[in-house]
Design goal:
Blueprint: H1 3-29, H2 35-58, H3 68-86, E1 98-105, E2 110-115, E3 123-129, E4 135-142, E5 146-147, E6 150-151, E7 160-164, E8 167-171, E9 209-216, E10 220-223
Parallel strand pairs: 2-8, 2-10, 3-9
Antiparallel strand pairs: 1-4, 4-9, 5-6, 7-8
Helix pairs in contact: 1-2
Length: about 230
Amino acid sequence: MSSIALITILPIILVVIIILGLGKLLAKFRIWKPKRTFWFANIYFTCGIIAFVALFILSSQYERIAADDELQVYIEENQKLSQDIKYKNVDNLKPEYLQFTKTFEATEENIEIVRADNSYHLRVVVTWNDSDTNDIEASYYQTPIFINRANISKLINPPEIKFEDNNFYIQEVEKEISAKTMHFSLELYDSMTVYEDTYNPFEEIIGLRILHLNVPRHFNIIDNSGWIE
């Protein structure tokens, strides 16, 4: 059982123990005579809490929030990877980040990349190879994506890529994602007032989505958007 689940269940166990202890105490001193009503309410209340906690823990929408040091590692990795992509160095794209690879056969020398208006958050990088074939390889990579400290990688849809009439069409599947976090902590407060900057990089969207096109040198890539690297 994870530490988060254990922290969530412990207060429930404590409440159940208190209720059972209170029931025995009332029965011992005969303060509350209708035992049947008490035990019925006790069982009803306990089952309701257990069902609520189980539904909360087993829900697919439930994720452990990442710690600051964990997020800092991803931020630094993404910054370095972003610089590598800028200079067309794709060697640092980790295999575990690869989501899919598709191969398309070009028929004409000039190939235009057409991007939809909603696809400009996707980094597109073009590299060249010395192959004599007409095959163009498109690989989509996705680093872990965090929003408000929650990992939402499995909720992100890959881009739709089509190759028609010797043109690449790139379009995103629109999806609205929101994340709420709960923090369990014990803090000591004093009378000192502390003013802090509200900006926190860990609360921003963290992660990269990259489409790598590996193209034979005898083709020309036409980019009318100005967003291709």
